[in-house]
Design brief:
- The chain has 283 residues and is mainly β.
- Helices cover 0% and strands 49% of the residues.
- It is built from no helices and 23 strands.
- It is elongated.
Length: 283
């Protein structure tokens, strides 16, 4: 019978399908392995290279996409050398500028396809020093891409993001065709509060008419319905739209003790139980 002399090699099967498992305890196990097949008509060879994986190199850059009084949102330019394995996480170490790295805090994010990473619970008007890293299955890279950032002061909330996915239809030419009644549920995502807790959302909606001058503006042609919705985790409200074949503008703002956010709005047309929605978030 056949015998594997080195216990760090394990062969399962001897044809037509075979598996070779290598436990590479030393560098000498890495290299090119040759698979040989032979029958009365000839011999065929196939080379397979076993490479040693290692930690990734430093990330090339950490890009700040958004800053509030208490949060930072990043995306990362991956390292030039991933170590032979996919990057599975990104990390940041951060400290107040006068502190030492021994007391630094760390946040680790699983690698995400959308590439958006948010660092929360920072202090307004505080200067932080940050350094970034990444990891694969072997381990962490060295820290790099250092930055020093001063957080802005507390302020009004960021605008809420209105959800349109619940309508369950596809957009065509930036218009959402709806199959729903004149009463439906509006929902939104809670925005950053910029260091002062959000206490309520202001919801307004009213009939509008598109300007006949060819512009994209809308003019109010009916009464405004207003609702103050206490925060307490509320992220939805039911709207009662009385008129069919009518355009409505729906406006939502977040509020804290420093004021209202900018508006997030939708333009809706009701018609025979169907609605058309255009997204228009004003910054």
């Amino acid at each position: 019978g056949r015998q594997d002399l080195d216990r760090n090699f394990r062969i399962k099967g001897h044809g037509p399908s075979s598996d070779l498992t290598v436990t590479p305890l030393k560098g000498e196990y890495y290299g090119v392995y040759k698979c040989k097949a032979e029958n009365p008509y000839g011999i065929a060879h196939h080379d397979i290279e076993l490479e040693e994986a290692h930690e990734p190199s430093q990330i090339q850059q950490a890009i700040i996409d958004k800053t509030t009084a208490t949060t930072l949102q990043f995306r990362f330019v991956p390292p030039t050398d991933m170590g032979g394995l996919p990057i599975d996480a990104y990390a940041v170490e951060y400290k107040e500028s006068r502190g030492d790295w021994g007391s630094a805090k760390r946040r680790v994010w699983p690698a995400a396809q959308n590439g958006g990473y948010i660092l929360e619970d920072l202090s307004p008007k505080t200067t932080y020093t940050l350094r970034f890293g990444c990891k694969n299955r072997v381990g962490f890279s060295e820290w790099g891409a250092g930055q020093t950032i001063t957080m802005p002061r507390r302020g009004r909330p960021e605008p809420p993001t209105l959800n349109t996915e619940q309508f369950g239809v596809e957009m065509e030419d930036d218009v959402i065709e709806l199959n729903t009644s004149n009463s439906y549920e509006l929902s939104w995502q809670i925005p950053e509060d910029n260091g002062v807790p959000i206490d309520l959302f202001l919801l307004q909606y009213y009939p509008v008419r598109k300007d006949t001058t060819g512009s994209a503006d809308w003019s109010r042609v009916g009464d405004i319905t207003k609702k103050e919705i206490p925060h307490r985790g509320n992220v939805r409200d039911t709207l009662d739209l009385q008129f069919q074949d009518t355009y409505y503008r729906i406006v939502l703002q977040a509020h804290n003790e420093l004021g209202y956010s900018t508006e997030s709005s939708l333009i809706i047309k009701t018609k025979k139980g169907k609605h058309r929605i255009l997204m228009n978030n004003k910054k």
